[in-house]
Design goal:
Number of strands: 4
Radius of gyration: 29 Å
Helix content: 40-55%
Number of helices: 7
Order of helices and strands: HHEHEHEHEHH
Number of domains: 2
CATH architecture of the largest domain: 3-Layer(aba) Sandwich
Length: about 180
């Protein structure tokens, strides 16, 4: 039995040595995979470092019409966002890379807010600029948080329980130990 296995192994090995493409695949594939793994790891680490959300830098938000809606601007400032006013051709400035992203506030925002109407704002950005995604997502989250809070306050002022808008609550419970999480 052992002799048969040894004979089969010799035959297969000699066939493999004759076929150079197979031999190259067997020997070089692990080297290729290490290269791909290293390149992917570098890309992920580089993306995380260049994202504004992972740095300690304050997020700069250019706003067109900030004076039209002070409540939201105060909320964003309280969360560490540095707001600067911008005028002129907003789309061109974002496209040329002079501005990362711009929030456009309509002129009648305060009037709409006072009357309880919906305010349509716009966030102008270039999706191909991956460096701004972290800051852009942070600004979006803060606007959504403000939106939710104001919505709840409006319901309370009308005598409606805000829990009705969110009938399901999900609480995260992480059972992984610190050792599993890598906190040795």
């Amino acid at each position: 039995m052992l002799h048969s296995l040894l004979t089969i192994f010799k035959k297969e090995w000699s066939d493999t040595l004759r076929d150079m493409r197979s031999l190259r695949m067997i020997l070089l594939m692990p080297i290729y995979m290490v290269g791909v793994y290293a390149a992917t790891s570098y890309f992920v680490i580089h993306s995380a470092k260049t994202s504004r959300a992972t740095t300690n830098e304050p997020i700069q938000l250019s706003v067109s019409g900030a004076e039209h809606f002070p409540p939201l601007m105060h909320w964003l400032k309280e969360r560490g966002v540095i707001i600067t006013s911008v005028e002129g051709e907003i789309y061109q400035q974002v496209e040329q890379g002079k501005l990362s992203f711009v929030l456009i506030v309509p002129k009648d925002a305060s009037t709409q807010y006072s009357s309880g109407e919906k305010i349509d704002m716009s966030l102008v950005f270039d999706a191909t600029n991956t460096k701004v995604q972290g800051g852009l997502n942070f600004v979006r989250q803060q606007i959504q948080a403000w939106n939710g809070r104001i919505g709840q306050l409006r319901l309370i002022s009308r005598g409606i329980d805000p829990v009705l808008t969110n009938p399901v609550s999900v609480r995260d419970i992480n059972i992984a130990s610190d050792q599993k999480m890598g906190f040795l």
